Amino acid sequence: MSTITPITKNMLIVAGDVSGDLHAAGLIRALKETDPDLCITAIGGKNMQSLCDHFLYDLASQGTNGFVEPLKKMPLWFKLINQIRDYMETQNPIAVIVVDFYGFNHQVLEMAHHRQIPAYYYVTPQVWASRQYRAKKLAQLTRKMYTIYPFEPAFHEKFGGNAVFLGNPLLDILPAPLPKKYDVKDPKNHPWKLGMLPGSRPGEIKRLAPVFYQAFKQILKEFPAAEASMFLLPDADEKAIASLLGEPLHPQFHFVKDKNYEKRQKMDFLFACSGTATLENALLGVPMVVAYKMFWPTFQIAKMVIKVRYISLVNLLADKPLVKELIQYEATPRLLAAEAMAMFQNPPALAHLREQLLNLRAQLGQAGVAARAAQDILMDLQKK
Predict the structure, then answer these.
(1) pLDDT score of 299 more than 70
(2) Which of 35, 144, 247, 323 has the fewest C-beta atoms lying within 10 Å of its C-beta?
């Protein structure tokens, strides 16, 4: 990194995946609106790059998750850690803010702690779900944490952490749910809209996209007017993903790049990869089945360390199996198709599930989350 003259109000923000990039971008915007004199340096993704003053690297596009796969990125991580260390020592930032992505960001926090730079965690990782010992480390390394679920501050308090819940930042991004009625007279011949969310990381897409597509082909046998949309990130390579599906694509199947959720919220039912997308779907009021297929060694480790009953955020918030979860060997075209067809055959069941999903929205606070967090961080920095 080239050396520049240190700036009085310089701040570093680091995110490492697609959802983190989105939330960090919202926080950057709010910070700059609150204090226009701030100069923000960032590592993250394209959303952050468009808003910050100095952008160091697009880490979000690297797409790693789990326990084993991040090991492949270690040379890159070492390079970035050295770059961040150089930045901290030459630019003297007033604060460091990290967003989710514990594996990389806890190293950033340790460097900040060593240099007595105030550090904040925005979108605290879900350490309550697995490896709870990490909560103690987070308490030691952060001045304050901003959680995304209302039950998390009490969990962190047990480990000495200073955590607050100001609302879920998805509420700043998602549109209000559309009014929708499932008044279908002929379910068999209705043009049902099926959405597919195979994930944002290459490994997820490779494992789930073909399964989702084959499930759609099975659905067509019973519901011939059904249409399917596979939702992709803006920079996704459609040709590469089409090649994963292995055949000429059905004319009622389409790839969709949907920046503002306009098309997703119109879906009748979704196949969703476990992750942030499941909570987005719930807030939009779109019924779903959740599927997840992991790299085999990752799955074996996950079985040993995960401490919660459900993998989907929707079921965790509801504290019951609100939506069906198909994990690893159960994530098959046959079982996915069966879930969708059962719903298409029973429109009142779709309407009931939609109502239950929308009830979760009230648990997550109100919009304006990034603005509240930005104000809180800047006020906290004024304290001695």
Answers:
(1) no
(2) 247
